[in-house]
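Archive transcription. Copying these from loose printouts into the bound notebook so they stop getting lost. Printout 1 of 2:
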Amino acid sequence: MLGCESDHWEVAGGLGDRVTPTGEAQHMFRALTVAVSVTALIAFGGAAAAYAQDDSGSSGAISPVASQNNYTPHTPTVPSLAGSTALAECVGDVPWIVYSVTLTDPDNQSTGHTAKLVLTDGSQSHTITLGKLVNNKLSGRVLWPGASLDSSGDPNGWPGWEYRNGQWVQTSGNFAWTRGHITATIEVNPHITVALSYPPATAVCASPTIAHAASTDGTSADPILAVTGLNVPVIPIGIGGGVIILLGAVLLTARRLRRH
């Protein structure tokens, strides 16, 4: 048997015998084992902490399970055209549609940015392309369907009227139906229904005959035209009535003076 003694290790027996630590070497071996164990615990503990949620509410990583349990899906805001308008306006004997379109779409849900105005009476419809929205806004004006202008910008067409054999005559064509009860819708996707109707009968742009009368006398004011269809001036009638009443009062006074 061959033996060799050292300060740290002792080899005993033959070549097949094991080597056993002694003394200080045993302490170093144990310390190394403890250090490796502690390091492993720290490593695994840090990984576990990365997926754990702090119960105190402090910031930190959220575990996949906790994330699934606390997940609240985001519901996109539905786009809207609230506040958009379309109004009829008579300017210089010409019927216009003045529009203002505003798209509210914070989550970019709208599938289009071209505004259109759709008119319908239930059986007929007409679509007017207004234009493309810029920064979700668009405003301007377009001619009422059936209205037209000449090269000088003067009106030469009105809905429901046509120039035939040297004179203006009413017709069921040329968008005459738009002068009745209609529904107007601004469409961008979304869409909104707006109140819109042709300018009333008292407007100069009601018909070419009224517009022509106003232009020949040099005035641009609306003619005196009752909604019931009376086409004679109302002011002269009122003045004549006042004169008759005054004459009657004078005659009555004269008779009373004669009796006395």
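Printout 2 of 2:
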Amino acid sequence: MAAPVAVTGSTASPAAATNPVQAPSPAPTPSSTPSPTPTPTSEAQPSASANINLGNAPLLGVNLSGCEFAADGALCPTPAIVDAYFDKGFRAFRIPFRGAQADNAAVVAKIKAAADAATTRGAYVILDRHDYGATFDPDLASWWAKFITAFPDAERVMIDTMNEPKTGAPYELDPATGKSYATEVNAGISAFQKAGFRHKLLIEWRGSSGMSRFDKKEAATKACESPACSFDRAGGLKDPLGLTMISGHRYPDADGSGTSATCVANSTGAQLVSNTDEAAAARGLKLWVGEFAFGNHAGVSATCAALGAEFIARMRAMPRTYAGVSWWGGGPHWKEDYLYKIEPAKGTFSSAASSIYLLAITGR
């Protein structure tokens, strides 16, 4: 379910490229049968999310798009935009940006100003590297360790390590390299924290971070094809500080791509996300839904409204699992006819009455 983003052609930083494969030392002959997938238990897998407490969870937040649309940062959200959304009821702000923008001090200053505006009012910020690059690993951890120095508030500033990653180690352990998706993620967490940082980390996965494919429940005799299996065979998602959670995306159209305003009619809001939230709950992991949408400022169909209400009810019924959601479609720079545009006509958001959709996604 690739995020429906119209962006300019900025270039991702080297950390978003496929990592070179190290020349391996002599590897053992691979077994034809993958190692068994253990049954998740809290005793066997201490929760990587044990110390994540965002207060009145689940939080209802929003994506404030803009930075990722223009390389020079001309469309980055401003403090005034953050204030307007806070006043409408949002309590978390996911700010998508491009990795290449980290080299532009003026753009970083704009991102920081928006983040500071949010945290000053007691909201949370998720810095989202919106590059569709590599899954989290030590190289990406090194990149974040440099960038995050401009954002020292580890209590309220969180890191979405890579939006909808497309490259990285396979889910099944590669006997030639000794690496898998899970071992690389765990190594990245370790490297980031050894550098002295304590920001909460959000981990996505290949396949557009789709919440219908986090756990394929692979048999012990099958190779891993999903993040859940990869973590299980690596001994779990490992964060000794308990500051890491998973982050998935979900759109309610037929193929989950977020490209149609027509919501599926043969499902419920709970069914749309149950593959991931049940797997997270079984493993004691926190879950942040990085992108979800089901309407716009002009209205929402009865089918979509029901799915959205059911999803919100699902989150509220599982506060030990759900940390929150950042609804897609926020910010003033979307085309007026964009199917998930939260704002009404440009320049009227602050003064306009809240739409039915806005009331729904802020929990009212």
